[in-house]
Amino acid sequence: MKSRPVHPRSASRKASLLLMLSGVLLCGTATAQQRGGTLTVGLSYDIDTLNVYSTGYLGDVQATVVEGLLAPDKNANYVPVLATAVPTLKNGGIKLSADGKKMTITYKLRRDVKWSDGKPFTSADVKFTWEAIKNPKFTAESKDGSDDIESITTPDAYTAVVNYKRVAPDYASTLFTFGIFPKHALEGKDLNTDVYNEKPLGTGPFKVKEFRRGQYVIVERNPYYWRKDSKGVQLPYLDQIVFKIIPDSNTLVTQLKSGEIQMTSSVPYAQVTQLDAVPGMNIVKNNVLSWQHLDFNFKGPASLRDLNVRQAFAYAINKSAISKALGGYPVPLDTVVVPVFAASNKNVPKYPYDPAKARALLDAAGYKPGPDGIRAKNGERLSYKILVQAGRANDELAQQVIIGSLKAVGIELVPDNKTGVAFREARYKGGYDVFYSGWITSADPVYSVFFKTGGVNNGQGFSNARIDALLDRAENTLDPDIQKKALMDFQVELMRQLPTIPVTSNLSVIAVTDKLGNFVPNPTNMTNFVDTSRWYLKK
């Protein structure tokens, strides 16, 4: 979820920025009412672009500005946003072809929606979004769902009929949920270079006021926003949200304590206890649809294509020690389908912590310890670069545990941590030997993006025909029984092939001022900012 360099600012300019943001925060807090005020949020990652279809990161900022036809709620159930209802077979919004191989979805759109420039939102925007994303000239991070559509018709300004080439059970989590493009502003433009990437035009509660790369984004109230509260008051309540870019976890925590920021979704587990003691700070624990994983680069060192080596990694990693080092918040995991889903398979091949078995596997495969204890075979040492996102305290701590575990069986891991654009490029292009990080999914996960041949998040270059077939089966049916069986079988085969090691489930810890009302966390990849219109700062 493309990239531009971040230019450094002078020290004096940074100081001025901090003073400005502190002033905004104090002013917002002092005059906080149900309508008004500024919320300052700390983001733990740099922002590459504000185009929600081009970014390589979670779209926290984008979610305040851009809306889709549907969105997942706090329970990971899809609800209507720019559409008036969630299409289903039962309500007639979804219809299957006579042979059951294709489907048509009809979206009825809200009539009272305007873009933040005052122009009306119509079905033409929905059709344009599809046409723009599938355009081969547009370099998007993900075009999921665009190739599944055969055509879109717009019988009137408030009806979009989407004709699919296949049965697509993941329709709600792909193309039209992440956001709609404004046809009147983007038609004929180059989406790779247009100013939209810096200042997207949306229908959401806020619009972009200022974006300073590597520093902050300020969004302000959209005067044309369509939602109102139960008393007829136009939303949003907040005047502004300031998103400060703070990739270093320690700095993030320091600014929470000082009051320079009032919220972050990325509290390091080791800092939870001390933040919980900060007056006026609430700690919210959010069970997200996410898991931590260690991936192998199949385009990298030849030894990583040896199943014995990958299995040795799996037996050598002490998942319980990682969980303990992280305060017990993440829970050891044996499969990539997290337990909240009915299709999570408990009967996959397992690799319990067993360093003796790891050593035996390597011995049998001919990898012998050298004078320094690191194993080698045919001149190739089992020494690899391990990538995590620099500054993410949780991941860097887990990385150290993994390095120690692997050294005990004769495998050397050397940290090669990156941040910003460098991290993003390494992740997507396979610029690593092994990679430790986390994935977060939608409410109806599409695992082909991670593990199918050519998947958009398959930077490791893994390819397996049986896994491809099982994912095709799971992702081309509306029959829940067929889908579940295919996903159960997929997990078994994935753990046999072991291109990835599921390490732990994830718990997101959010620190937020107790002055923020109506905040409800969201467990999906649509982020906690998917509906900020009702947030308000208490007096």
From TrEMBL:
Classification via Gene3D superfamilies: Dipeptide-binding Protein, Domain 3 (3.10.105.10), Periplasmic binding protein-like II (3.40.190.10)
Signal peptide: 1-32
GO molecular-function terms, A-Z: peptide transmembrane transporter activity
Domain annotation Solute-binding protein family: ranges: 78-450
A Gene Ontology term for the protein's cellular component: ATP-binding cassette (ABC) transporter complex
Family: Belongs to the bacterial solute-binding protein 5 family.
Record protein name field: ABC transporter, substrate binding protein
Origin species: Deinococcus gobiensis (strain DSM 21396 / JCM 16679 / CGMCC 1.7299 / I-0)
